[in-house]
Amino acid sequence: MNMLNGVWRYRGFIAGSIQREFQAKYRNSMLGAIWTVLNPLAMILVYTVIFSQVMGNRLGGNSSTFAYSIYLCAGMLTWSLFAEITVRAQSVFLDHANLIKKLQFPRICLPIITVLNACVNFAIVFGLFTVFLVVSGNFPGWIYLALLPILLVQVLLAIGLGMILGVLNVFFRDVAQFFAIVLQFWFWFTPVVYPATALPPEVRAWLVYNPMATLVAAYQTILVDARAPDWIAVAPVAVVALACCALGMQLFRKRSGEMVDEL
Amino acid sequence: MGSILVHNLGKAFKQYDKRWGRLVEWVLPVLGPRHREKWVLRDISFQLAPGEAVGIIGINGAGKSTLLKLITGTSQPTTGRVAMTGRVAALLELGMGFHPDFTGRQNAYMAGQLIGLSVEDIDALMPQIEAFADIGEYIDQPVRVYSSGMQVRLAFSVATAQRPDILIIDEALSVGDVYFQHKSFERVREYRKQGTTLLIVSHDRAAIQSICDRAILLDGGRLSKQGTPEEVMDFYNALIAEREDSSIKQVASGEGRVQTTSGSGEATVTAITLENAEGEALEVLDVGIPVTLRIKVRVEAPVARLVLGYMIKDRLGHQIYGTNTHHLDQPVTNLQAGQELEYRFHFPLNLGAGSYSITTALTSSETHLADNYEWRDLALLFIVINMTRRQFVGSSWIEPQVDITR
What we know:
The complex is a heterodimer of chains A (263) and B (406). With 263 residues, chain A is mostly helical.
């Protein structure tokens, strides 16, 4: 309760920080904010044009030219959001060591800023992707809104995991190195680039234990097949996400005092 | 509003002998603690009433900064508690969190938000912040082109833009150019007058004595002395000079002041008087008369080189004038035990009305840090009154000739 109060009082600082971080990126460039759009645009272009036209990839059972491109973007863009939040949250306390050591303010603001920043970046990229869907005639319709609860679950999972890693990383600096490797394996064990059907059945059975696989599959179902995702499968992931958040907050509350001494 | 209560405060850092110690402790708490505790602060208790000003002094590593961090809440205490009422502003490190690529104005907003001000607050305070920082058009330049002094000016202006109930300062006033130091000190003084409670860490004797009601001396993580700034400062000076075989002694002299004597004891001041031209030892003297400071010294053990110094201080302990026989090119060499010396210093008493004290020091060179045979604070007290001169204020008598053209 106290924490929420502090966050509310420092909402100006949070909003300001997000805005500034955004500005800082393009501060000394001539094109300025245009880069925010150009970069993701290039990414989407690569995924769509190169993979659909040059590689001529086709998904089994879907004949649309852009099917694979959409499949790829659906997984790739959301995975980047997950990766950005976790990777930046795990180093957030170390990055702001100076501020934490010298100033008294609600520490929880720092991860919040990180998460919101990642969300803003994601919104830009995903907005462009949505425009592409509409223009290319692949917009899935009302079911598009089903993305929101899935995204919420994913962000919660990322926050929980990021908080746990962030606190641990202050005390055990190996955590960041270790998680970078884990993230690599995790990405390739999630059907983002390849369809799940490409996996041998005995391996595929393990995918249910990969929460990201479930979420990415949900995005792909919505955006490629324009169907509702498998809500029953998402439910346990939501539970895991909440558990991660609870654990992360608990860890943060218990160790934030000790953290200052360690920075 | 504005009180601070520090009760039984202690801080220990955990030290792990082995790299895996912490992990083992976290994962298998049943195995018991695997760390040693390194106490940097112990059993600190004191109180500040609203409007009071207290200075904290101590050598480097005595725990001053840790104490301030505990009080401001950046660091969590291991034992005890801190209770504060009112809005707190802490100047622990100025210019923290300035982003070099943003302009001074943008950074001022960021710094203001970081101490809990809203954008509307800062909007309203901005003209005053700009005026006080006095950095001209640099306010709209990126901070990376600022000099360090300009950064400090801006940071101080933002941090003190609003009068807090409690102001906590760590050495912050000793930065920047002299002009700004005066200006920032003036602001602190002003806030203090308006009722702000002040907690200040400084090595600057003058700053502590002129603004604080009380001083606290930290030594080795413990509260070693609490009292008037003058008394604690004298004790602190003696502590710095303390050597293996020396002792510190404080006895109450008249007027409720405390006389501090320290040193290794090879030589000692046996008598000290201030005399007028007729050779009468007086306690009350008139402004501007020629006087002689007569100091008798007895040598207790062989001394290769002896320097006698004295310092005249005002009521608040501000240094008015001091010199020694090293600077005066009159050191005495090869002294044997039992020898007695008499020093006579002749000077005009160009002091303003008030009470003054004289501190004496017997050393081998120009500082009392190398060999400190004896350091005696408040060795002599005297009062200056203005009986025959024209009316003036201040502690120095520097009467001018006036020429007016019209």
